[in-house]
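chain below, 265 aa
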Amino acid sequence: MRPLVALVATCSLCTLTLPALAGIIPPVPSQWAIGGSTSFMPDGLLLTGNNPQQVGIAYMQNRVAVRNGFDVRFNYGIGVPGQNSGSTGEGLAFVIQNQAPLAAGAPASGLGVVGLQNALVIMLRTGAVQSLDVRVARSAPGITITSPALASVPVTNQQLRQIAGPGGLSQVGGEVRVRYEPGRIRVELAGQQLIDTIVNLDNINGGSILDGAGSAFMGFSAATSQFRTDQHMIGGFEMALNIVPAPATAGALAALGLLTTRRRR
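prediction:
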């Protein structure tokens, strides 16, 4: 993964200011499917406009093989163009789900993910409650995204990268990194690791949330409420797969001089 840098990219149509990621380009329209309020912009995915009760979703066109791990980085911007709103929410989510190509959940504080089944979500709440949550759901009784979070930590305005944009715009924007290895997930916000917790996508309450090939849909969601009507945008996006090396064979270990034998006495 390339290092994060403090460059700034500006969304020319929605006027949101996003901290950029070195060498990472906006999501390519031909590779993504969008639904709800989402639209493609020159500098990324605009998940919601500044209108009430919207849900915006965007998933990669094809399922992604995530069983053997993944490492994802993206940047985001949340705010109201041209005004100092004092409100930055409701928030957005990074989603791994195996429900449907354009599955969507509830608006407002549901961030477009509450109600999903067979899903892992990283929820970045930026409204009345500011937190970073890891939640899972499986199509089994009592297992929903609204169940207690696997991990939840409060976040501050400083961690959310509170910045002043054009015309005194009040908004938050920053970088998120999600790294999953089978059995473990780590989440960074603005270069600081805030979550490191146990999770296995093949063993959520005794079952897998992936398909038979170890794949699922990967993407984003965001939502507005009646009183929090900020734009939510995803800018640069980068993904690496199969980050867990395969177990070395005895032959490979021997070739490296790492395999020894014991002599019989």
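The mean pLDDT is 79. The first strand starts at residue 8 and ends at 10.
thats it, cya
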